[in-house]
């Protein structure tokens, strides 16, 4: 844990007191989003202190020319960057002609911030003494509408406390924004049009290279003591900015307010010629409804989300706050309504990592969306990969594969590979396996075969072809081997026969063939189409199966475990506990070669395989592997603690499970990795959900039935969660002495509780 | 082979006819240097076509801020860049007020270029028809003085052929130069002072960050039909340029000439305040002597070099030209007089690779300088590493080593590591071995123990400590292993137990201990000093030896060969001959992962070990390893063919040896690697020398005696070379029917010829 300034609370993220050093971390933690856009919790008014500005539009990106020290053949030309978008939250505030700026004012009292997760808004209040000795009280509330995804709203109140004061609001739009993350200091946006009158403003700009057209828009109303004023603003234009100025002499104790409605219309959703008219319609709707009505809808929309996705924890407010924060951020990042979007590792909370899609989506996020949303949301995530199949095939061709083999990118925005470290881009190929696994997982959970039959089988075939071609025959081993890979544990590069990779490769081939045969038998038309499109032959299928059947798995007789990769035991096997604490995190203290030749594991690798394929192994096997590998695991990936929490729970090691749970659920709130100011770890938040539902709840799907074997940390009184299983909504409430199932929707359902079948009605 | 426009000639590199496409390649091939400075063969007059400008000063570099895609702990902050220096060769030429420019003139006839290696000058002549229809004949000669290392001289003659013409010469100095190779488009030079009068000009500038002060200087004289004119020039200044203009109306058939003396004085060799006065002294000397006298001295100086280092080949002009080109370039690059300098991979012929010192120096260059120069030259190269020992220890500390262990840098200018690819910088650690090997090699050849006793032992101890700490104990193998390395074959990264690395590590420890004991016994005072400085203990020595004695070497019983690294045989063992030719060179056609998992070898790796330690193995062993590894070797490193040529010769495979010889000796002349325009491969040129002397000549030093087992390619009538062995200069002449030894200096010498001792007097 690196920080603990966040006040524990059931439903809100709260900060009390103003600390310059916490500003950037809070900008990440208090981020808001509505799936279609999102923004860091930057202040509306001027702030001249250290700050990381960020406003993001889902699907709008910039292909930044690759910059590397040493070029390798096959590197992509571009890295798709998450793009800082025009700023529409800005409201310059002047108090007696002095700019209100928390960095430069004399004194700040009663500063507090709240991210109200229940209702979906961000609030802030403080009393500031300016250099001119005016004391003002400020209250701000802001949200991004779930109902109207292009719209956000801000309510900004100022009350002079010690004197009458002239207050000026200058709401503005600014398209002169830059990225912190840029390879060549390129300009990413070009402003093409500005329009501003007494209460509305518009800026049109487009991204360079990708030519996404964006209209940023705003409209403001001002109020005195909640009574709307008819004041017309004074419009101003700068090169890449439009603003409107509203001034008022405000009596001591009176409150001058501005309601700003703003947002983006983009060419993703509108004809390019209609962006401004679309913006005007939205503004009209917003102005008609007004801030309070819009906020009311926002609360209702979030209420609906929480109805289904809330997890309650009794008796442990930090654990409760943690899980809600995770669920809230996931819902802010991705709502599943747009199949062009995906779940970026930082969501709308920062620029880092670029791209929007990693294997995290398939390996960690699908289960959450599958169980807490309608199944079409998870299906959209699968469809996203189907839509990128052509590019994945191209990507494989660039690396020398042929005949329709696909290698899905490590990082992507539009299907093209973005990443450029050879040991990752070219070698962390296990990602292909997760994409096939998600198809299996989706079908297992939903029983919806239509995706496989319509789209998924093509994906499975292309992935199987990749593994087939990527495996080579080793004469000395008389087995197929996969050489030169990076497994999920990125603290090993270019290793041979990573067990996880080999295992999932074998499985991918077998699963593809199983489905080829099923579709051939049961869906002749689909089979004909796919057969024609892929040119699959029985010889190829036989050859593939030969590879799968003869795959090599490194194994230690001495330890009775599969080896993470060949030669793993040649390392100096010093356990993490015996390592000098000053050396950790090793990724901040050791040169890369030292990390690579150490036995230390960044995140579940062999154990990731035992997580995915738990049903292939006995619990004793898992236990052996957990006992062998966990002591070497440094958990320096945000994706590590959740898998270990689930497995520790399964093995009945509740203290360990609980400690991993806290680490995953409060990773950002407590800033374990000392980097939250760069943004939140969005994708690992779905792992937090899994660590409760699959870990403590022990939920599994076996033979078309939900199975549970609930456990509960001693720190908790009870916890509950809901799952949407095949049109049944089942609520599960676990306390120390019993587990309650309530069916909230759907016909009676048989579930398995610790090996016994129970009928829930 | 990629080009064949160079005319075969015994003593010169010649090009006839002007081809725009060859300009940049010729700029590399016709480069001149004098060990202390050097330059590409750029034209003196304006040339607006594609050209790669380059003028370099030994020891003057710029630490360019590292730029990588993904930072790893331990990367150096800077990459030492070879620095393009102010241009002093420039002479703008106007003919009837039209700028002479071979890129834009109407017609070029009789263009020829000559790099006269015997005499050490670069010449060029042509007839150009300008746009204004004036036809001029031009003759240029240029050289960098071996005698006066800060001085260069140019003689430029113009003869109007079809009409009287006004000819203007504008000799200039230009410090507004840039690097092609720059990470951040930094400016590398700052100009601080300019001075110009009617015939002299000076520009002072300094490098940014490193603050090397350089005074570029020039003086010009003009002649009509070889008679000096008293014309005073008209001086001109621009921001970073000074020039002097001389005009003359020249009758048809008359020749107007300019002699330009120019060069650099630098703060490396002078007090900063005296650079201009030093320049003036040089100019005075040059003007007094005049061009012809200076050229005469140049011929004599080169004659002296050739006296000792020439290799003659009868009956094969291309082979003769190749070896002389290699010997000439080596002597242009490094003369051994300045122990601060070293042999950059591109010498003074380009910017690529940066740095000046690679393991190439110790592994490939030392033997050439040792045998063709006084032994102090090789000793200076060893001393260079001793001077960098402190930085090598610091470098090892950055990577987690301690107690005075040293890791010499992969690439350096001043002792600090410059390189930034983790798989090279951190893992290509075998370089440390070559540095120890050079000490052994120097002592074996010269019998001079003073270097070891005074300096070398400290280096050996620090290197042995590194290997001791870098080796770890493998329980399953019950041996010491070296994990995560890149061997000499850079087409394998992060492998375990690279045989070459393990072997040289073991040897380094044993050789260090052997010398620790020798110095302890024979040089008590030195031992005391070193003992105190290094804090060496007997326990440490015992521990080291334990590691050396128990080092693991991967071995294949089936093939009877050591394995390049563990798991090598798991690859798809398709030989190079069975590989589709379109796929080669693989480094231009394959993505990096594909190269890594292939069995293809960039350059001698296991065979490099057999080259260094030939005396440890039987010829049958070498044969087995050569037969096993060569068929997988693609020779895509310039350092590959020479070692294979030597070994093929030893194994009596003369056709193969000859083909490797041609490839190494004419690598640049015939542009095998399609990249000569970036500069020549200087360090591998020393390998060419070895391939004749050690390969065909079979020269070895055994038991303080020279051994020869000469062979001769069937294409040659005879060949001869000289070696300076312990103050004997021995000339060896080999023809098909006999070998002649002539002692040119020193007392009678016993040499071994094919196993028989011969007394040479």
From TrEMBL, chains A, B:
GO molecular function, one term: carbohydrate binding
Domain Glycoside hydrolase family 65 C-terminal: start-end pairs: 699-760
A Pfam family per the record: Glyco_hydro_65m
Glycoside hydrolase family 65 N-terminal domain sequence ranges: 15-267
Domain of life of the organism encoding this protein: Bacteria
Example GO BP: carbohydrate metabolic process
Active-site annotation: 490
Listed Gene3D superfamilies: 1.50.10.10, Glycoside hydrolase, family 65, N-terminal domain (2.70.98.40), Maltose phosphorylase, domain 3 (2.60.420.10)
Positions of the Glycoside hydrolase family 65 central catalytic domain: 324-690
Binding site for substrate: 359-360, 602-603
Record PANTHER family: GLYCOSYL HYDROLASE-RELATED (PTHR11051), MALTOSE PHOSPHORYLASE (PTHR11051:SF14)
NCBIfam families, per database record: PRK13807.1
Protein family (similarity comment): Belongs to the glycosyl hydrolase 65 family.
Protein name per the record: Maltose phosphorylase
């Amino acid at each position: 844990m690196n920080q603990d300034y966040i006040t524990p609370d059931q439903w809100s993220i709260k900060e009390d007191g103003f600390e310059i050093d916490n500003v950037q971390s809070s900008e990440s933690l208090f981020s808001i989003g509505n799936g279609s856009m999102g923004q860091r919790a930057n202040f509306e008014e001027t702030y001249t202190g250290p700050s990381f500005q960020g406003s993001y539009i889902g699907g709008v990106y910039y292909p930044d020319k690759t910059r590397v020290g040493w070029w390798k053949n096959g590197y992509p030309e571009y890295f798709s960057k998450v793009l800082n978008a025009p700023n529409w939250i800005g409201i310059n505030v002047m108090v007696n002609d002095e700019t209100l700026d928390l960095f430069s004012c004399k004194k700040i009292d009663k500063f507090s911030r709240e991210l109200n997760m229940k209702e979906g808004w961000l609030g802030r209040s403080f009393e500031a003494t300016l250099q001119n000795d005016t004391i003002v009280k400020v209250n701000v509330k802001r949200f991004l509408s779930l109902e109207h995804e292009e719209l956000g709203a801000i309510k900004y109140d100022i009350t002079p406390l010690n004197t009458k004061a002239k207050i000026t609001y200058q709401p503005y739009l600014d398209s002169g924004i830059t990225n912190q993350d840029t390879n060549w200091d390129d300009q990413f946006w070009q402003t093409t049009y500005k329009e501003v009158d007494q209460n509305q403003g518009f800026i049109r700009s487009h991204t360079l290279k990708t030519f996404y057209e964006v209209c940023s828009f705003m409209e403001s109303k001002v109020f005195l003591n909640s009574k709307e004023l008819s004041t017309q603003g004074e419009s101003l234009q700068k090169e890449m900015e439009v603003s409107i100025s509203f001034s008022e002499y405000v009596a001591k104790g009176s409150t001058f307010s501005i309601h700003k409605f703003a947002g983006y219309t983009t060419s993703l959703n509108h004809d390019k010629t209609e962006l401004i008219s679309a913006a005007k319609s939205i503004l009209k709707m917003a102005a008609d409804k007004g801030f309070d009505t819009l906020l009311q809808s926002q609360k209702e929309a979030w209420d609906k989300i929480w109805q289904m996705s809330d997890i309650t924890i009794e008796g442990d407010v930090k654990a409760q706050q943690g899980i809600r924060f995770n669920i809230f951020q996931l819902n802010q990042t991705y709502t599943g309504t747009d199949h062009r979007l995906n779940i970026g590792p930082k969501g709308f909370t920062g620029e880092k990592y670029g791209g929007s899609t990693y294997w995290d989506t398939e390996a960690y996020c699908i289960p959450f969306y599958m169980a807490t949303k309608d199944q079409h949301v998870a299906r959209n995530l699968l469809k996203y990969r189907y839509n990128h199949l052509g590019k994945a095939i191209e990507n494989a061709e660039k690396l020398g594969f042929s005949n329709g083999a696909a290698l899905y990118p490590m990082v992507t925005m539009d299907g093209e590979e973005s990443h450029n470290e050879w040991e990752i881009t070219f070698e962390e190929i296990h990602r292909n396996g997760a994409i096939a696994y998600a198809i299996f997982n989706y079908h297992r959970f939903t029983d919806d075969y239509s995706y496989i039959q319509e789209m998924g089988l093509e994906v499975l075939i292309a992935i199987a072809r990749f593994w087939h071609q990527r495996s080579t025959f080793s004469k000395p081993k008389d087995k197929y081997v996969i050489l030169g890979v990076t497994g999920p544990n990125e603290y090993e590069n270019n290793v041979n026969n990573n067990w996880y990779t080999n295992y999932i490769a074998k499985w991918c081939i077998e699963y593809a063939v199983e489905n080829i045969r099923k579709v051939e038998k049961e869906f002749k038309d689909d089979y004909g189409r796919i057969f024609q499109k892929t040119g699959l032959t029985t010889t190829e299928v036989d050859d593939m199966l030969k590879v799968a059947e003869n795959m090599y798995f490194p194994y230690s007789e001495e330890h009775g475990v599969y080896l993470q990769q060949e030669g793993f035991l040649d390392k100096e096997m010093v356990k993490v506990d015996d390592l000098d604490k000053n050396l950790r995190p090793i990724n901040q203290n050791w040169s890369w070669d030292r990390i690579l030749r150490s036995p230390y594991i960044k995140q579940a690798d062999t154990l990731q395989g035992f997580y995915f394929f738990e049903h292939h192994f006995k619990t004793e096997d898992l236990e052996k592997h957990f006992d062998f590998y966990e002591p070497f695991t440094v958990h320096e990936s945000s994706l590590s603690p959740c898998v270990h929490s689930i497995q520790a729970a399964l093995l009945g090691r509740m203290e360990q499970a609980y400690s991993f749970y806290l680490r995953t659920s409060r990773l950002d709130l407590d800033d374990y990795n000392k980097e939250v100011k760069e943004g939140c770890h969005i994708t690992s938040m779905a792992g937090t959900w899994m660590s409760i539902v699959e870990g403590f709840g022990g939920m599994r799907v076996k033979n078309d039935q939900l199975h549970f074997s609930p456990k509960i940390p001693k720190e908790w009184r009870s916890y509950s969660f809901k799952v949407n299983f095949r049109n049944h909504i089942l609520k599960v409430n676990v306390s120390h002495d019993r587990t309650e199932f309530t069916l909230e929707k759907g016909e009676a359902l048989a579930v398995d509780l610790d090996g016994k079948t129970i009928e829930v009605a």
